[in-house]
Amino acid sequence: MRHLSLIPICVISALALSGCQRAGEAEVERAVQDVISTDESNLNDIMMTVADPDEAVAYFRRNLDQQPEKISFQRGLAKSLIRAKRNTEAASAWARVADHPEATHEDRVDYADALIRVGEWDKAEGVLDAIPPTYETYRRYRLEAMVADANKEWAKADSFYDTAAGLTTKPSGVFNNWGYSKLTRGDYKGAERLFTEAITYDPGLFTAKNNLVLARGAQRNYDLPVIQMTPTERAQLYHTLALTAIKQGDVSIGKGLLQDAIDTHPQHFDPAVRALKALEARG
User: Fold this and answer.
1) Which residue, 3, 112, 207, 237, has fewest beta-carbon neighbours within 10 Å?
2) Name one Pfam family in it (predicted).
3) What would the pLDDT profile of 69-113 be if each residue is shown by its tens digit?
């Protein structure tokens, strides 16, 4: 009788052991899947940021052939196409991402950005309008400002630029865009102030330096601003000022600025040399 009583115990023990094995296998499988998922996510991030853009496009397309509905691969392809400057393809790719059931508001912001890159301003505006106003990010308001600029809705543009600048720790690009908006409106003083602000946040932003010189030149102020610049940048800014002066009829001043550009540049400055020769040939 004692031996018989051991049978249920052995059966129970065997079942428990089997259950433990199954539980252990499930845990191992979950761990493996977690590692695979992490590795895939890391590889996707690498492809979207530091890999060669065309190689990244090929990588994501290969993966989409196998898993066409996976949004991480769709998103990776769209971002890689933007990096590869294949904007028309990128806009179509972002449209697919935006239509995906798992799409986020940030995906729709990226879609609007892609549409702006290909000149689809009205469609971009519609995409942005469909995003809830409670979704407040730097990129969203920067694009809103650009759309308002395109529509010549200046008050809205100013409000959006101001909001965007407050939502980032690196607002130099926003101030530069805002300044260029003011420049196109003929508000040269306002543009000058904004370009100066952009340079304050990023002393290496040459676009803002060049735009600042344009704003000053438009006011017939042909002195270079007191800002950090390399000898090459100084020569290029003299060249910009010279062309601005010549277009406004201040030809003699323009000639002097071209000569300053030639003298300042650490190497041969062919555009300035050719412009000066052309002016002297005209007398």
Assistant:
1) 3
2) TPR_16
3) 999 999 999 999 999 999 999 999 999 999 999 999 999 999 999
Sign of CA dihedral 10, 16, 22, 28: negative
Please provide the size of the chain in residues.
283
Cα–Cα distance list, 281 to 69, 96, 173, 248, 277 (Å):
65, 58, 41, 19, 6
Q: What pLDDT digit, counting tens, does each position of 50-66 carry?
A: 788 899 999 999 999 99
Spatial separation of the C-alpha atoms in residues 62 and 39, rounded to whole Å: 17
Two tokens, residue 26: 């499930």
Q: Compute the distance between CA of residue 112 and CA of residue 212 in angstroms, rounded to an integer.
A: 29
CA pair distance 37, 76, nearest whole angstrom: 15
Q: What does each C-alpha distance from 158 to 70, 125, 134, 190, 199 come to in angstroms?
A: 39, 17, 19, 11, 19
